[in-house]
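User: Teach me something about this protein's shape.
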Amino acid sequence: MAPSAITETAEETFSSPTLGLKVPKNTEQRLLKAGIDPQNYPTRPAKPDYLDQVYAIRSEFRYCTIFIPLTPFSITSELTNSSEHVDPGTRADSEKKALLGAASKVIHLTRHIGTELHGIQLAQLTDQQKDELGLLIAERSVVFFRDQDITPQQQKDLGEWYGEIEVHPQVPQVPGAAAQPAGVTHLHNDTVPEYGGDTLWSSGYSAYDKLSPAFRKFLDGKTAIYRSAHTYLDRNNPQGGPKHVEREHPIVRVHPATGWKSLWVNRAMTVRIVGLDKPESDLILNYLYDVYERNIDIQCRFKWTPGASALWDNRITQHIASWDYEGSEDRHGTRVTSLAEKPVYDANAPSRREALGLDTPDAGQGGKGSYQGFNR
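Assistant: First, the predicted structure itself:
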């Protein structure tokens, strides 16, 4: 979910002639430091009207190298199609010594998802640390940093390390409507409410692990239709009315850096399972949505502070911002999303719990085992 629209409650604000919004004081200072004129911020590209314009924005397929863990302690690599998209996490030191060694504190927020690193400035990361951060995000799904001194330009530069920067055909995000959907997103909030406005993430790895072995086997290899949030006209048949952008992707995808399977459906974008009748598809999809949304043990919640950053992987998460502050205070951030590979399914890939050695008779969801004990 995109950050909420900026309200007009702050006492010291500047008007934007482009969108008629108000720029909060913290945002103004950050923009001026970066050499950006608050009076000309933000700008919005022209929205496309036709389907061919939207397909042209993101239509190139990118493939990747997937790493398939053989045991909790060894990996091998398997090339799929081509290596046009190289996930930085595949280049990283598995122990992430450069990144974690530079942190003053490492806090795992839950067993399954979410890690917070202290004492690191994202704008000062070395190339090796960027790769290791990519792997940490791939393993922990979302990583948080506070008190970041980073300009929008530096945020964009960091995003380019993880892939081609996404161009939205509309302001709201449409993660499933591209040939290669979004990978890592970096949201930096410079202005947040005093309380409220938290963001919640849910793990696709653990959502898949929640399913019974028989149900996983049923879903493995199946595909679904993913639909854009907005509609567009067919230039060759405008009288046909608005149409959605649709793509076919696997329901269970494999992350190229970890080699783990993740459930990849979303209530907002996944509309039907290919090969099933609508009542069958609706019943299954609604259950899968609930697995993501109703299991609090596979979720984490982050309370924002001014200058905090969150980097998460859209291939293995869902997220939503809490609207409990109801627009009573300003909330402003800048978001950069990097494109990833065309979603891939591999029958030989393990689940996260299998890869970590947790999927044993004496270690169910409440059994022993933690991220700390995993050494690739």
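Now, about its shape. The chain is about 20% helix and 25% strand. The chain has a mean pLDDT of 83. If you'd like, I can walk through any region in more detail.
User: That's plenty for now, thanks!
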